[in-house]
Fold this sequence. Notes:
Keywords: ATP-binding, Gluconate utilization, Kinase, NADP, Nucleotide-binding, Oxidoreductase, Pentose shunt, Transferase. By secondary structure, the protein is α/β, with parallel strands linked by helices. The chain has 26 helices and 14 strands. The strands form three sheets. A seven-stranded mixed sheet has the order 8-7-6-9-10-11-12, sandwiched between helices. A five-stranded parallel sheet has the order 2-3-1-4-5. A two-stranded antiparallel sheet has the order 13-14. It starts with a strand and ends in a 23-residue tail after the last helix.
Amino acid sequence: MVFILSGVSGVGKTTIGLLLSARLELPFYDADDFHPAGNVEKMASGLPLQDEDRQPWLDILAKNIKIWNEEGGAVLACSALKETYRRKLQSIPENELQWIFLHSDYEVILQRMSGRSGHYFKSTLLKSQYETLEPPGYGIHINVNKPEENILAEIMQKIQTIKSEVGLFGLGVMGKSLALNMATKGIHVAVYNRHVEKVEVDIAKDFAGEHTGIFNFPWFDDLAAFVDNLSQPRNILLMVNAGKTVDIVIKGLIHFLEEGDLIIDGGNSHYKDTARREKELAKKGILFLGAGISGGEEGAKKGPSIMPGGTRMAYDRAGKYLEKIAARDSKGNPCCAFIGPQGSGHFVKMAHNGIEYGEMQLIAEFYHYFRFGYKFTPEKISAIFLDWNKEIQSYLLEISADILLKKEGEEFLIDKILDAAKQKGTGGWSTNSALELGVPLDTITAAVMARNISAIKEERKTAEKLYEKPSAETIQNQNFNDLFSAYKSASIINHAIGFSLLTAASKEYNWELNLSEIARIWTNGCIIRSAFMENLIKIFKDTPETNLLVHPQIVEQLKDYQKSHRQVAGEALGSGYPMPVLMAAQNYFLSYTSGQAAANMIQAQRDYFGAHTYERNDKPRGEFFHTDWKPDN
């Protein structure tokens, strides 16, 4: 928000502006300091400025207002006597610029001006200013015939009653971080959280109170008051649990909303639910946007990757806010873009999380292999990961290296964490979606199932006592270059699998997904950001709908890695250490690059027991045959 204090000379624009900037912790600027030298000389000689004199000055100010707003806001003292001048200064959206018109009677200001010294504006020109003045019919109007502290108090009171641009519903970890992110970017945001005795007590009130003096968060635990605080048409960002909760919240909100209002679902909702909600709300004239948000607590606060899907109209409304709070790519562009129609935004977020599952499990497998196969200390494994990450530049590899160094007393904390993980939501959804679309999802499915089997801890402990582990002596002489090559190979294949899911969905649902743009918004802010993701921007620009594994650059890399990949996977298995994602990646690669698969036997079996028919490789595709397979006796 940029605050402009306007009015004739002598009303206290500079004095009050400095006080306001200190209270709001925003930089202060005086428009007089931006006058060209010719204007200053003219005013100092007692000559009033003409409109042609003011044009270059207004142009300079308009450019700076846009810059100040992008940097978080500012307070500007500027006379802006005419409506044409004020329109010229409106270089940012109206709801991001607040006019504060300071005024009083001519005699009061004349008396003030008579006592001023050392200012180039002469009191003799005051009358011409009053003649020129066109009081605005909008903004905050303040009579300055009172003490300065009272003027400031009145301004602050009126600022606090300004309608909020965005309403954030749900103050969990992500909701709180996003609210702070928006406030830091100058977005006026109101916050709401339900109040339930002994369950959720004063969440919104306490959050706003924690930040008093830094940000002004209008807070609410009353839904009607929350909605009433929002400027129209309203923009409401939901940060609540996916599933039935979203429907319950929408059902509660709908009574207070009007045609043209917008709801943004920033949670991990299922893409089919998002498409359904958009269709239902459209009947009431309410816009709906499903926005996948990745980055965790830190990303939400500092800048996440955002994947919005829905109607273009909804994105045009919400995009300016989402792009403002998003992370920035290497060129300074927001890691946020319109994904496509219906539930495409949440589908892309689901695919992101699927790739994330695979990457996390792959790192965990190498950690486990090093820790229990090689008997390496967490410190040594951390050093290996850091060395690998000089090339990979993966956020997940980076945090894994940090995790391995954390101690509790004299012991490594990682050794005290129960080895049981669960999955819910996006990981399993990815697998289900792949089944519906007929797309192989080997690494992601393996990662989901690895979590599922880890969750049955007691069963695993019982089974361990029943079987002997193979000897691990052979792994001590393994080449570390092979280990790194195997890791890189599996990671590339995991990404290829994830993006192939996006390609299939785009074709099936006519979403026209831009894979290059999706890769770009995944280069910062999100969990799977890496140097490889930067490369994918160009790769998918060159070959937008082709499996990564057939791109020339990827082919050359994987040719170098395959021997190591197979060797490491085989030795790990032979030594008794499960590496499901590493092995699933190799199985997918071998299957994808095999001209002859085992499926001819499958087709023969199906035709034998169910007369399902089959195609022949010596006949045109599309011709089907059935055989009586029983031997002739």
